Amino acid sequence: MTNQELQRLVEKVSLSFFEKPFLHQATFNQRLKTTGGRYHLSSGNLDFNPLVLSLHGMEELIGVIKHELCHYHLHLEGKGYQHKDADFKLLLKSTGGSRFVKPLKQRKMHHHYRCASCSQDIYRQRRIDTRRYVCKCGGVLKHLTN
Question: Which of 20, 38, 123, 139 could potentially form a cystine with 115 if both were Cys, beta carbons 3.0 to 4.6 Å apart?
Fold first, then answer.
């Protein structure tokens, strides 16, 4: 999807769900890593993470668009546009926008341990000291990966 197609999609979603026009710029931003989208208070523009579309599809992207448009329209109207505000929560619920985006990156578990007693597998990002830490059952942990 190009930025022009995204712009048309945001304008269409704004008119159909909010019954208000979107008058600013919507673009994809490759630099967004953990968030689905961003509303710029100073300029009124919207940025979207292209990974949302490629990993989770059009339905998830539309949910993120609705979320950012809630910020956009409420801010322009002078109402509570922050996540904590009741106006935002109410509008997000009524339009069916997503509260959180699905995870955009997979967490890698580098270290694999197995309990000698109950054979439970334990995965950790950081290496743990098996002389100090044990399994929930009290069994000794064996480090299986390097």
Answer: 139
